[in-house]
Amino acid sequence: MNTADLGLPVDVPSTALFTDHYELTMLQAALKAGTADRRSVFEVFTRRLPEGRRYGVVAGTGRVLDAVENFRFDADVIGFLRERRVVDEATLEWLSSYRFSGDVWGYPEGEVYFPGSPILRVEGSFAECVLLETVILSILNHDSAIAAAASRMASAAGERPLIEMGARRTHELAAVAASRAAYVGGFTTTSDLAAGFRYDIPTVGTSAHAFTLLHDNERDAFQAQVDSLGPGTTLLVDTYDVTEAVRTAVDIAGPELGAVRIDSGDLLLVAHRVRDQLDELGATKTKIVVTSDLDEYAIASLAAAPVDAYGVGTQLVTGSGHPTCSMVYKLVARAHSADVKAPLEPVAKKSLGAKSSVGGRKWAARRPDEHGVAEAEVIGTGAVPVELADHQLLVELIKGGEVVAREPLDTVRDRHAAARERLPLSATQLSKGEAVIPTEYV
Amino acid sequence: MNTADLGLPVDVPSTALFTDHYELTMLQAALKAGTADRRSVFEVFTRRLPEGRRYGVVAGTGRVLDAVENFRFDADVIGFLRERRVVDEATLEWLSSYRFSGDVWGYPEGEVYFPGSPILRVEGSFAECVLLETVILSILNHDSAIAAAASRMASAAGERPLIEMGARRTHELAAVAASRAAYVGGFTTTSDLAAGFRYDIPTVGTSAHAFTLLHDNERDAFQAQVDSLGPGTTLLVDTYDVTEAVRTAVDIAGPELGAVRIDSGDLLLVAHRVRDQLDELGATKTKIVVTSDLDEYAIASLAAAPVDAYGVGTQLVTGSGHPTCSMVYKLVARAHSADVKAPLEPVAKKSLGAKSSVGGRKWAARRPDEHGVAEAEVIGTGAVPVELADHQLLVELIKGGEVVAREPLDTVRDRHAAARERLPLSATQLSKGEAVIPTEYV
Description:
The structure is a homodimer.
Chain A: H1 21-33, E1 39-46, E2 56-57, H2 61-69, H3 75-83, H4 89-96, E3 103-106, E4 112-113, E5 120-125, H5 126-130, H6 133-157, E6 162-164, H7 172-185, E7 189-190, H8 193-199, H9 209-214, H10 218-229, E8 234-236, H11 242-253, E9 259-262, H12 267-280, E10 287-290, H13 296-301, E11 309-312, H14 314-317, E12 327-334, E13 345-346, E14 362-368, E15 374-381, E16 395-399, E17 402-403, H15 409-421, E18 439-441
Parallel strand pairs in A: 6-7, 6-11, 8-9, 9-10, 10-11, 15-18
Antiparallel strand pairs in A: 1-5, 1-12, 2-4, 3-5, 3-16, 12-13, 14-15, 16-17
Helix pairs in contact in A: 2-6, 3-4, 6-7, 7-8, 7-15, 10-11, 11-12
């Protein structure tokens, strides 16, 4: 993790505290029992998609790689753990030289996923893998939830750009990750300067009602904005009367006025009226930006309206009803020793109810039909069937502790668009339904 | 903000990037127009509570104070804004010496709130106040949402302790703030080490299924845990067969076994069976901890079950259906100049629909009935009626740019418990309803 990973100009030496207490006490017990170094395989997967959703979107993988690389127990952290007596001295000693040395494979970021998809696979000693559970799940559960909502909104918006503007509706640093995930899902820009700083996502802004109210009247406010930012700016036209505001806006900025923003009222109706008025005033190239509690359904309902861009806040950063995924990090196989030749035995919880899982180290492939459209998520253990060899989903991300798969965010964004494109058409239906392709275990 | 505010042992010099792009462009325009220094009053409030909720909980105020204090545009930030051409050189020059010098009043953290409550009031020049909008709202919207869910869960749990264990279900740093907000709302402990590090919240842990699966059998796993952590540990008993696990657990740890955790199945039924079995085995003091997608309703449904503690994850960190509040930050009054003697004029957006707001610098008081039970949230502008003078809610938080109201988290937690106690009894009904007291404007 580098200085900017928190959207802040600071050095962040460690992510090791983003960890549940029990990871460390389990480590202590396993160290004492001599089982800590047993070769182990953990997998991240979800048992189901959020209700009604047809696909999930893997997001946050790049952040996971940073988090694993910087997972170190430095002196401050060790001091805290000692003072609080979280674990014993032998365990602190072990932790002080911790560095993940195993392998991580996973779905490449931006890929879609389905129930059971082994999104991430972490292999190494039990000790080194178990510690990573909390931070890996935090990142993937949050970022994938946002990306899934973003993807649905991007489908609904079609070619029209989407502006992420939800920073004020979520934790200040979750907001930075949300901007990133939104970009992966298909958003175009963000209002969040920290996201611009950290991830180089283009930042944009319009104006707030406070700016209009600051001035003696709307005309003064518009004049001040245009004087400073030029006629290409976006003027907010719903502080008082929209029709009068649009007239004033064009009067001041001329037909070169960049855009107007509408933030309240019946957006469908108001957008039509404003478009007509702008055209009558000769401002035929002036764009209309709408905001106001939009979600994918509201965006879709505006498809036929003369809207040029959507600004989305609350519903984006809260995952449009599903603010988290239900990804879990489970031990699926382990050997009896650290020896790489020791056979891996599949393991799985056997209790009643929906929480049992499938043991064994898994591969996954997406089987296409004759037209190249996905028809099943195929998951198995053992050898990959020949006909699926070219359709495998997992790629190597960390090899012997070294990150081997960093990539630019635009690559991830393009991958997501391409992956969604290869799903059956019903994937982008907004109505509630089942996963768009079935998961098959072989 | 000090080194640990991110749950990390690092220096964090600035929160200034947690800001929407338009705050800076509005500043630029106002600087050029000569209106930037107009004395202004902004207020944070919410137009409604989340559907069905009877009260809100103010949380995050302490974090807001840190954020305002550390809101500085250092060289790295200025360099970024220049390179991206967010604002012009004159504005960058102004920003480089920015330091909030105004006043902030607000509901003390932990207080309850209702629709319209002026939770925070920020006064100073337009320029210095408008910049703080995004970060203030991020913190209050997130933390208050979590605290409100926590408060309902704490009511439902009664005297039984609540363990916050949702880190893996939300952004890794949102998780730290969520632990803090949960503690304010009435939780007892957290699993999140970063929250323990930063806010001194007691951390606790049990064990995961992976630990059992790592070992050759459940007996080995329990033995390893008890050997290392002592009989007072909490053993997870639902990896295979609960009855057999409980028998093995007491066999190994003896009647001094601290607790068993149940994480699946019909918790009501299983808790009764396990209690009976523990008692039969002589482990009458061994406690039962339940986890597994609990929310306030599930907690309430277990009130008559022999449960000693609840662990809550997903539903806590996602605000139990309401992951954000709808708090806004609005300009409510401004003068025509920077002169402190210039009269403040109330301002408000006038557009159609639910988004209009009430202008003017407000006071708020909670009027009690003859028994001391709250009967109305009274909000007004101008002079406070004599009979309400002793019931005012806003307190001074920042004076001339200096924080004057830091307080320990336990004070905040106690304040919340006391504030909830003074609400009508129906406040803690879990069923959906209206705000438990009306908001009156005078």
